[in-house]
Design brief:
By secondary structure, the chain is α/β, with parallel strands linked by helices. Helix content is about 35%, strand content about 25%. The protein has a 6-stranded mixed β-sheet. Strands 2-1-4-5 form a 4-stranded antiparallel β-sheet, with helices on one face. The longest helix has 18 residues. Bound molecules: adenosine-5'-diphosphate and magnesium ion.
């Protein structure tokens, strides 16, 4: 992606609509949602279960198409792109962290972080060095060869974060990333995410129910009737 500079948000969701068919009728989940994510800014998305947080994150991450509206990445509209072009943007510009780590169980922490870079076509030697650097940065310098089952919940999530940022994305989307963790571990994982925003100037959107963590972020938004509302 071209560097958007300071004039364009990293991600801009404009007038996003998303409906699901439900029996005879339709269920409206997003109804004109509008949200800009800026480089170096962390945004908490705090809204009840079923209000459309995951749907919004999937649309922002180009994992799902809206029924109408436009997703701009670095100021460029994405609805005109082919599937291959969308996939390419997902690989290089977007990092995604889920509630469950979704690491590949047969691979080590290091290999899990290397994979997205290998898929992108970076030389193996470079991906090893870079992956070790990121894992060490997230406090996992002693865990390179561990498989996911040999890691604690907090460590698994930090490996998942390392994997998400391995290709130095412009935006990091996290869907209740601390939802499965005890409060102390949640603080640690959250700290890792905040540290990354400051260090890399990534734009970050985190769906969370944790008000205490949301309170530490730059901005808080919610979903109300399918639209984004600013909190505070
Ligand atoms: P949240 O992440 O805030 O809990 P979701 O975005 O997962 O909310 O879902 C919002 C609503 O959309 C829920 O009521 C859910 O049941 C519905 N929904 C999500 N995905 C689908 C789908 N593929 N088909 C039908 N309904 C869906
Ligand atoms: Mg959800």
């Amino acid at each position: 992606m071209e560097q958007g500079g300071n004039d364009a948000p990293v991600v801009f969701l404009n007038d996003i609509h998303r409906h699901y068919r439900q029996g005879e009728g339709t269920l409206t989940i997003l109804n004109g949602a509008k949200l800009a994510l800026w480089a170096g800014q962390s945004v908490a998305l705090v809204a009840p279960s079923g209000s459309g947080k995951s749907t919004l994150l999937h649309i922002a991450g180009l994992l799902e198409h809206p029924d109408s509206g436009e997703v701009y990445i670095g100021g460029a509209p994405t609805s005109v792109l082919s599937d291959a072009e969308r996939t390419q943007i997902r690989r290089t510009d977007i990092g995604f962290v889920y509630q469950s780590h979704r690491l590949l169980p047969e691979f080590s922490a290091l290999e899990n972080v290397m994979l997205p870079q290998m898929i992108r076509g970076l030389p193996r030697k470079e991906t090893v060095a870079r992956s070790k650097e990121i894992l060490a940065y997230l406090g996992l310098g002693e865990r390179f060869t561990h498989r996911p089952a040999e890691l604690s919940g907090g460590e698994q999530q930090r490996v998942a974060i390392a994997r998400a940022v391995a290709n130095a994305p412009q935006v990091l989307l996290a869907d209740e990333p601390t939802g499965n963790l005890d409060p102390h571990t949640a603080d640690h994982v959250f700290g890792a995410l905040m540290q990354l925003v400051k260090a890399t100037q990534v734009a970050m959107l985190i769906a969370t129910h944790n008000m205490q963590l949301a309170g530490q972020m730059d901005r808080r938004v919610s979903l109300d009737g399918g639209q984004i509302v600013e909190l505070d």
